[in-house]
Structures are given as structure tokens and as C-alpha cells.
Amino acid sequence: MNPLAATVAAARPTAEGGHLLDQADLLYCLARAFMPPPEGWSVCDWAQPLQADLDEIGPMLGLDVSGAQAALEAECQRWAAAARLADESADSWLVEYARLFLTPPVVVSLNTGLYLEGAVGGTAAQMMRSCYETAGVAPDEGFHDLPDHVAIQIEFLARLIERGARGDKDGAAMATEFAAEFVHAWAGSLEQACAAAVGRHPAAAVYAALARLLRRALNDPSLQQR
Question: How many other C-beta atoms are found inside a 10 Å radius of the C-beta of residue 190?
């Protein structure tokens, strides 16, 4: 399920838009990765198509995806070892996801208003909703969460970048502004929150690596300052 529903048809891509389309494809993959996984899937079931996408898209962008791949592989191995022993830690990936992001008290928030202004559903979320409406997209009716959810924002950027690749200068400009105003401001905090949770929840290492990949894919200025 995609968290956004488009209301504007896309034009044909420009000749120079290939790199941007690859970037958009990566962001679509990351948006899906931060959505709840299918019920009953193990981490290996979930990771396999994501790993294949990263293997394909990473080289096209000249982007090192080895950190994310290593985290996915390590978690698959951990799960497989637990499954062989019939260990209780061999839970489905949805259970692991819920432990991190859904079950109160939530360990890591995917509602980024918490990182931006210390509150969920506040001014930042309303500003994001306004951006979506201006661009002609809206949260899918089947997606029941706030406008500041990580997956909504990443997919929104993917849609804008895809429009830019197809010659929409307004879409490209809005993508740059949205990333600067919001995503760059919370992505580092999300990565840190996931990394801090690894001690109690090893699965968090996967999402910390994906957050880092998101930051690198969008050229997060704070990464360049280190």
C-alpha cells in the first residue's frame, strides 16, 4: 500500500532525467521499508526484495548501499539462527516493527513532529499537509496516520523528484525545499533514535541503516560537515 494517492498525471521524462528517476525509485523503496510489513513475513521474506532493489539502484546512483545490505543480512542471520532453535526471538518482522514503532510506550517515533518540535500532530504536521495539498497529492484513504509519518514524506519526495525528472521544474524545486525544511531536520534524529534502540531491539539496526541511506541519498548537509 502506498501512503499517498496522486491526483496529477505525470509527463514523459526528460532525456536528462534518468538519474532523478533512479533517485525517486530508491526513495519509493525506502518509503515502503518504513511502512508496516506484511503479516506473517519473516525479516528474510521482507529483506530479499529490498536487497535486490538496493543492489540494482545503488550502482546507478553511485551510492554505497553496503551498510544497509550488511544490516539486512545480519538481521536475517539472527532470525534464522533463532528459528532453527525454535527461539521466541524468531518473531515475524511485523512483530519486530510493532515493538519499535507502534506498541506503547513507542521506542522510536515515525511521526517526525516529535523530532522537529517535540510534539506529534502539531504545526509541522499541518505544514506538511499543506505541502501535499499544494502538490496535488493526499494521504491514501487506507493509510491511517498523521501527515508527518516518515513513509508519507519519503514517498512525497519521490513523487516530486519523479516529476522533476519528467520536466516539472516546480516539482523539482518543491522537492529541494521540502527536503531542506523537513527531512534534513529529522532524518539524523531518526537514525540516532534507531541506533540507540539496538541494545534492547536488535532489529532497530536495520532501520538505523536505512535512515542513514536516506540521508546519503538526499545529500544531507549535516553528513558532509563531519
Answer: 25
Confidence band for 106, pLDDT divided at 50, 70 and 90? very high
CB 178 within 8 A of CB 189: no
Q: What is the pLDDT of residue 10?
A: 43
Beta carbons within 10 angstroms of residue 107's beta carbon:
17
Environment class of residue 200 by beta-carbon count within 10 Å: exposed (0-12), middle (13-18) or buried (19+)? Answer: exposed
pTM over 0.70: yes
SS3 of 80-109: HHHHHCCCCCCCCHHHHHHHHHCCCCCCCC
**Per residue in 139-160, pLDDT tens?**
776 667 899 999 999 999 999 9
Structural domains of the chain in order of their starting residue, each with its CATH number: 13-221 (1.10.3480.10)
pLDDT value at 14 more than 60:
no
Residue 154 CB partners (closer than 8 Å, separation 6+): 27, 30, 31, 34, 183, 214
Closest to 89 (Cα-Cα) out of 210, 218, 202: 202
Cα–Cα dist 127/135, whole Å: 13
Give strand pairing partners of 137.
6
pLDDT band at 8 (very low <50, low <70, confident <90, very high): very low
User: How far apart (Å, rounded) are the C-alpha atoms in residues 164 and 205?
Assistant: 33
Closest to 39 in 3D by CA, of 90, 82, 95, 87: 95
